[in-house]
Each structure stands twice: as structure tokens, then as C-alpha cells.
Write a structure and sequence with these properties.
542 residues, alpha/beta, four-stranded parallel beta sheet, two-stranded parallel sheet, 23 helices
Length: 542
């Protein structure tokens, strides 16, 4: 049964009609439910969809019952058709225009051109300016609500964007210092602010009409602490590793330029927007809303975060991501590196110490390989420079302008005998092993070993003669990145390696079944194909 607005108004004289433009968006849905709960409104939900389609959670909800009783109705609007807009708002006493935070990226430009026929100014600023400019024209009173970083159940953009990054393991990093502060607004508090604004305009308060008001939960906090509450509530590890903000900004600008220039490295506008949010401080003064609208958040930030986490349970961490929890035992790569100081440096356990070691090695690499001098002359000049530094430091007086000069103890230059014995023992072991391999080669035996040794020596000679600098540079970068990355993505790397091994074995088996028998025998004799592949090939040829 559909009851018109006039009939409902007769039944309840205090009932008034309002329109929620954008009533099917994230903010709009929250406001519609709040208006219906108040019980004094006939709500017209206006949006761009041709008809109202309730999702699974709304089929037995307050909205569905209100539509059935006539307390709510749906109106299709198209801003290009003024008659539809007039029909939706005609006879209403209040119009709430809700910002469409769910607007798709590829629709932004289209909607922008529809509303203003201009791309020189920001869409939201122009929409707000038009609303405020309309104040006090033909008795119309308007004001603007400026919520910041809105979150809550039903959010499809802001929090889910970062949670999906956490699911992919990309939120281990803090962009910048992590000290940037931000304000946040729980969605129901934003709806409450709209109700407060309507009540203030109903009293025709001059301090409200034609003004704009910032809205937040009045609890500014570090942006990364807010994300950490969400991540930990869903079972993900909070971000710990800090990346320089300048470096991230340059990467973002490079991606933007590449996307604009060549059209690849696609990245959505919302991704750029949220990266900027993570980089900057963004807090607002909400005292005007408190003073003139009587606004106070009804839901605390902590409770809002808790409700948001419960609504995102489908994005919670599962067992495949359990490796992000604190480890009770050393990782495989830490065991490989010995678990000592070298492991601590290469796995970035202490960021400052690791970065200092990396910077020192880069400077040494530049001095020995990129300076244009020969390696011997570079090493000699480095030793000479070190000699002058040590001599000059030793010649300094014990006290300089009140500062004590600490002497370098001789123990700094002493090497424990164990550290010398172990490498020498390892070298002797390799020498003896090599000698045992060379002995049968001198007798003309083991051609397979000869082929392997000759190939290895040739490539070693090629690398040392032409690609030594490149090889050392790659090894330096590899050492400070590969071990760290492997520890973070151990399961993925192991899974990929297993997949590649299986693929190579299947490819080798396929080759063995299709190559001539003589070729298969030759490859097996040199160890390129295993004996099982030879047996399979023989069976295939038979």
C-alpha cells in the first residue's frame, strides 16, 4: 500500500517531508535510516538508479517497512533533467544533499561535466558553493556539512581500500614519520550532524544559514594508529616499517606521469587520494558546529571502529596470513644467515643500523668500482686515507673546547683466532675437494665433470672481466632486499618455487617424450636430463 505525503501529514500534523539526494550512497543510507528512526519524517530517497533495489540486508529492514507503509518513497533523478529534480523536491520542507563517496572513478569526469561544464575547479567545492549561494533566496535556508575521513559499516572505499592492501601484505610500511594527525568521522555521527543542522535552520538561526561546518568525532589521532586499530581488529599485523614520504611522493608522481603519458601502470584516483591522506596531517576545528549546531558525536571513535571491524568480518585475516603474526622461532632465512649480527643487518631488524651499513657499502662500492680508477689504486688510496684519519685522530688532544676525545682501543683491530681459523679451514676444504675433482680430469675421466667445470670457469672469467662492477652492485642490492622480502613473503615465494619446479619437470618430461632417442641419451649423459626422463623417453619410443 502506498500512502501519499499529504495523507500521512494529515494523520500526524508534526510529520514533515524531506528529500535525501544521493540517498543510496554510503552517507545517504545512514541519514535515511536515522530520519526514519526519528519517526517525524516522510523520507523521499532520491538517487540516479532507475528503481530502488534493496540488497540482502535491507529486505526486512526499517527502510523496507517504511516503503511498504508509505513513510518512505524512492524517486529517480537525473541532474540533466530539471523536471525530475523538481518533481523529487516539490512540496518538501528540507532537502539533504549527500556527497556521493561511492562515485566510480570512471564516472567522475562524466558527472563533473554534467554538473558544471568545467574542469577548472574542484567538484565538491563548486557543489558546496552553489548550495551556500542559494541561501536566503525565496526564503530558502541552506548550510553545508564538511565531514572528514568518514568511516563505518557500509563503507565501500576508505577503510576497505586499506584492508585489501593488508590482505595482500602491502601495509607493513608507514609512509613518512607516522606522526601525522587526522580527524575521523563515524558515519552515524555525520547523519546526526545533518539532523542538528536541519533543526538549527528550522529555528532560522542566522549563525547557521549560509555557513559551512566541519564535522568529526572530536578525537584526532595519528592516521597510522587509526589504521592499526582496524588492522589488528581484523587479525592483521600493524605497520612498522617506515618509508620516506619524499620517496613515496616521487613514486606517486612518476606513476601519475607514466599513466598520463603512456596509459599503463594504471592506478585509480581513489588510490592516489588515500596515499595523500596517509602522507599529510588533516585536522579540523569543529567548535562552530558544537556552538551553533549543538553537535556532539553520539558514537565514540572507539565504538565506531569496533562496529566497523564487525561489519568487515568478511575481510578478516585467515590462516594463510598467519605468518604476519609475531614469530615464535627464527624464520628460514634468519637460520640461513646464522641468526647473528649479519642477519640483523640484512633483515633490517634495526633500521638505522641497517641503513648505515648499506650506505657505507654503497660509498665503498663507488670508491672501488665507479670512481674510474683501477681496483688496486682505489684500494691503495682508501688505505692511505684511512691511515691519515687514524693518525690524525690519534694526534688529537684529550680535550677540545671542553669535549673529551675518546681514544680508539686496540681491541677494535684485533681479530679472534676462531674467526680466522674457520674461513681458512673452509678454504682448505674447498681446495682439497677441488683437487680430488681435478685428479680424474687429468687422467681423461669424468667428461661430465669436465664439461661443468669448464662452463663454470668460462662464465666466471666472463663475469670478472666484463661484468664485475655490475655483479657486485647487483649483489649489494640483492643482499639488502632479497632476504628481507623473502622473510616477509615466505609462503608466496616457496609456493612459486614449487610451482616452477613442477612446471620445469613437466616441461622436461614433455621434451623427453618428443625428442629423438639419441638426443635424450646425450642430454642424460651430461646430467641435463635425469635418468627417469630417459626411461620415460625409452618407453615412449618403444
Amino acid at each position: 500500500m502506498v500512502v501519499d505525503d499529504d495523507r500521512l501529514a494529515e494523520l500526524n500534523p508534526k510529520t514533515r517531508t524531506c528529500v535525501v539526494l544521493g540517498g543510496r550512497g554510503f552517507l545517504g543510507r545512514s541519514l535515511v535510516l536515522r530520519l526514519l528512526k526519528l519517526g517525524k519524517w516522510i523520507v523521499r530517497v532520491a538517487d540516479s538508479a532507475q528503481s530502488l533495489e534493496l540488497d540482502r540486508t535491507e529486505r526486512d529492514s526499517l527502510l523496507s517497512h517504511a516503503i511498504a507503509s508509505g513513510r518512505a518513497s524512492y524517486h529517480y533523478v537525473d541532474v540533466r533533467d530539471m523536471s525530475l529534480v523538481i518533481k523529487a523536491v516539490e512540496g518538501s520542507s528540507v532537502v539533504f544533499y549527500m556527497d556521493d563517496t561511492d562515485l566510480k572513478d570512471n564516472d567522475f569526469y562524466h558527472c563533473y561535466m554534467i554538473l558544471f561544464q568545467s574542469i577548472l575547479n574542484d567538484l565538491k567545492a563548486q557543489a558546496e558553493a552553489l548550495i551556500l549561494f542559494a541561501n536566503d533566496i525565496d526564503g530558502l535556508l541552506t548550510c553545508a556539512i564538511r565531514p572528514c575521513n568518514v568511516f563505518g559499516p557500509g563503507d565501500l572505499k576508505f577503510v576497505p581500500f586499506f584492508v585489501n592492501l593488508a590482505r595482500s601484505g602491502l601495509t607493513k610500511f608507514i609512509i613518512g614519520s607516522g606522526e601525522n594527525m587526522s580527524d575521523f568521522a563515524y558515519v552515524e555521527n555525520v547523519s546526526h550532524a545533518h539532523i542538528c543542522a536541519e533543526e538549527a535552520l528550522d529555528f532560522r538561526m542566522a549563525s547557521v544559514a549560509g555557513k559551512a561546518f566541519f564535522i568529526s568525532d572530536l578525537h584526532p589521532m595519528k592516521f597510522w594508529n587509526f589504521l592499526s586499530l582496524i588492522f589488528e581488529g581484523l587479525g592483521y599485523k600493524r605497520p612498522l616499517i617506515k618509508l620516506p614520504a619524499t620517496m613515496v611522493s616521487l613514486i606517486v608522481l612518476s606513476i601519475k606521469w607514466t599513466q598520463r603519458k603512456w596509459g599503463f601502470l594504471k592506478c585509480s584516483h581513489s588510490a592516489f587520494h588515500y596515499i595523500q591522506l596517509a602522507l599529510c596531517s588533516r585536522t579540523f576545528n569543529c567548535s562552530a558546529a558544537q556552538k551553533h549546531l549543538g553537535y556532539l558525536p553520539e558514537t565514540s571513535l572507539e565504538e565506531g571502529v569496533s562496529r566497523t571491524i564487525r561489519s568487515l568480518s568478511h575481510l578478516a585475516n585467515d590462516m594463510s596470513f598467519s605468518r604476519y603474526c609475531d614469530r615464535d622461532e627464527p624464520s628460514k632465512v634468519e637460520k640461513l644467515l646464522g641468526g647473528g649480527k649479519v642477519a640483523d643487518v640484512l633483515l633490517w631488524r634495526n633500521e638505522k643500523k641497517s641503513f648505515l651499513c648499506f650506505l657505507s657499502l654503497v660509498m665503498l662500492f663507488n670508491w672501488l668500482f665507479l670512481s674510474g680508477r683501477t681496483f688496486v689504486s682505489s684500494a691503495a688510496k682508501l688505505l692511505l686515507l684511512l691511515l691519515f684519519i687514524l693518525f690524525g685522530y690519534g694526534a688529537l688532544p684529550p680535550n677540545i673546547f671542553g669535549f673529551n676525545v675518546t681514544r680508539i682501543p686496540s681491541t677494535w683491530f684485533e681479530i679472534p683466532e676462531v674467526l680466522v681459523k674457520d674461513p681458512i679451514t673452509a678454504i682448505a676444504h674447498l681446495w682439497n675437494k677441488g683437487f680430488h675433482c681435478i685428479t680424474p680430469l687429468a687422467k681423461g675421466q669424468y667428461w661430465k665433470i669436465f664439461f661443468k667445470v669448464a662452463t663454470f670457469i668460462y662464465f666466471l672469467k666472463l663475469i670478472l672481466s666484463q661484468f664485475l662492477t655490475m655483479a657486485v652492485g647487483i649483489a649489494l642490492v640483492f643482499a639488502f632486499t632479497a632476504f628481507f622480502v623473502y622473510e616477509q613473503y615466505e609462503l608466496e615465494v616457496d609456493g612459486l618455487a614449487k610451482f616452477l619446479r613442477v612446471s620445469v619437470k613437466e616441461l622436461a618430461g614433455s621434451l623427453g617424450r618428443n625428442l629423438p632417442h639419441s638426443v635424450v641419451s646425450f642430454l642424460c649423459n651430461f646430467g641435463i636430463l635425469g635418468q627417469d626422463k630417459r626411461t620415460a623417453a625409452v618407453k615412449h619410443w618403444k
